[in-house]
Amino acid sequence: MKLRTVKSILLRYRAGSKKIAEERDMERALIIAHSHPELEQIVSNQGPFDGLFHSAIAGIEVSDTTRQKFEEVSQVLNSKQHTQQFSFRNPALLSVLVSLLVLAFIGTWLYLSRSQTFPGAEEVEAILKMEKNSNIEQFDPVVTDAASLGDWFTMKGFDGYFVPPGLGPMQTAGAKIFRYEGQQVATVAIPEGKYFFIVFPATPLGVEIDPAGTWKIHDTEEGKLAVQVVNGMCFMVFSMDEKNDIVSLIRNLPHLPK
User: Fold this and answer.
1) Distance separating alpha carbons of residues 161 and 111, to the nearest angstrom
2) Distance between CA atoms of 190 and 175, rounded to whole angstroms?
3) What pairing do the DSSP bridges indicate for beta strands 216-220 and 233-239?
4) What is the rounded CA–CA span in Å between residue 180 and residue 12?
């Protein structure tokens, strides 16, 4: 079972749910997770998230009037004549539906805040984490403007390197290539602002940002970054200096959502 598949399965894991835990693919994923620190962290984080979700739902106060309307609708649906009484013009039914929509909205918001904000966000975060844990000595010294590194990367065996308009003139100090999940990842070090440009194939890792060229600002445990996908290649930029504001850096670049 591939690591990416295991990750997607573990996102369905619910602490304390015997039914989910006994599913065949979940059993295999849990076995693999116990021998993989990153996957085991996903499992251990699920408990607090489930607790947060239930706490949020439990903390919603329901008025006596709403409770009474729930009971009225329940009686209507359980009666023999419920097919004649079931109507969206029924005020009690409308109130209940609104309440359910609110609960669904809260649940969705909690899930999105915990999970990925776009397809492949977890892969982006993993690559960022690997880069931040790397050593600057791993870079080959290359002093030029960022847009001119295409030939250098091609000679090193990496195709598809690009820099979004507006960032190309920034001067580089070094460049390197490493691998993540079997895919080559190109990295460029920018001394000014301690910025790093990272480019890698988006499709094999499931990274999708629509429409193409749109900037996505993404908050991670490692810090804030900006990411976009163009022609199947993903470009992201972040800074090692927490004082630098990524949003300010790309504010005047093309395709930044207003």
Assistant:
1) 34
2) 9
3) unpaired
4) 24
